[in-house]
Amino acid sequence: MPGSPCDAACVDTDSVVVGDVEFATRLAGVATVLLSFPVVSVVTPTALKSTMQRRYAHALLRCCGMRLRVIDERGDASPGRIYARPDDGVLIVSGHVGWTDIIAIAAVQPVSFVARADLVDWPVLGLLARKMRVVPIDRAKLRTLPDVIRQIADRITAGERITAFPEGTTWCGRAYGTLRPALFQAAIDTNTAVQPIRLQYRNEDGSLSTTPSFIGDDSMVASLLRMLRSRGITAEIVLAPVEQPGTSRRDLATRCERAVRGQVELDFAAHGVLESEEARNTHKTPVPAVETVAATAQPVARIA
C-alpha cells in the first residue's frame, strides 16, 4: 500500500482565521452548492454542462477561501487554459495533497477521476464523485488493477478526460512520493498523450501552504472545517508541456514526475524521506508573475 510520512505536524494552521459569521456563510454555501448541483445538472442543456460544472467547482473553492491561478507552459499549440479540446481524450496526472485537489482540477475543465473506491461514501465529496463518474480503485486489491487500467483506456479512447494521482496517497505538498507507473499503461495502450499538471497551494506571501493537506489521521469533517475557516490560499495549477506515451510506462512515469514536480520548495528532513540527487539540486523559485484571480462563478478560461 502507498504510504506517506506526512502527519498532523505538517499541516499549517495560520490560515485558519475566518470568524464565526463568515464560517457559517461558507458552510451554508457548501450546502447550497451540493443540494442544488444534482438538480441543475439534470436541467442544464448538454452544451452548457461544462460551463455549469466549472462554475460549481469555483463556488466550492470560494467557500473554502481559495483563489485559483492557472499557468499554461505548453506554448502556442495549447488549447487554451484547459486540459484538452472538447472530445479529445487525455490522461491527466498530478501530485496529491488533499480532497481540494479534485475541486481545483475540475474548476479548470470538467474531468473524471481515478479515486479510492470508498470515495462515493464520503460526506460532501461522495455526491460529486458520483456525478464525476469516478473510476474506483482499491489499492489493497492489486488483482483488480488491470480492470481499472482497461476502464481508463476505454474512456480516454471515447474522448473523456481522466485524472489520476499516481502517488497513490496524499502528501503535505512540501515533500512528495513517486509517481507509480501502473496507471500510465492506459496511455500507452491507447497511444494517448498525458497532460502533467503541477498543483500547489500558496499563501498570500507566495510560500507553500499545507492547510489543504488531507494526511495522517485527519478526518474529512476536520479537514472541511479547517478549510471553511481558512483565508488567503491560492490553488495554483501549472499546465506543463504534454508528454507523448512512448512504449515504456516507467519512462513515461519518470518524465511526467519531472514535469509535475518542477522546481518546488522541499523539506524532506522533516518527513524522514531521503533526498534524491535531483531534489538536492532544486532551489526555491519565486512565484510566477501572473494575475491571481478570485474563484468566482465564471468560466476559468476567461478569468484565469
From TrEMBL:
CDD domains: LPLAT_AGPAT-like
Pathway(s) per entry: Lipid metabolism
One Gene Ontology biological process: phosphatidic acid biosynthetic process
Top-level division of the source organism's lineage: Bacteria
SMART domains per record: PlsC
Keywords, alphabetical: Acyltransferase, Lipid biosynthesis, Lipid metabolism, Transferase
GO MF terms, alphabetically ordered: 1-acylglycerol-3-phosphate O-acyltransferase activity
Residue span(s) of domain Phospholipid/glycerol acyltransferase: 90-202
Alphabetical list of InterPro entries matching this protein: Plipid/glycerol_acylTrfase
Keyword Cytoplasm: no
Protein's UniProt name: 1-acyl-sn-glycerol-3-phosphate acyltransferase
Organism, as annotated: Antrihabitans stalagmiti
Lineage of the species this protein comes from: Bacteria, Bacillati, Actinomycetota, Actinomycetes, Mycobacteriales
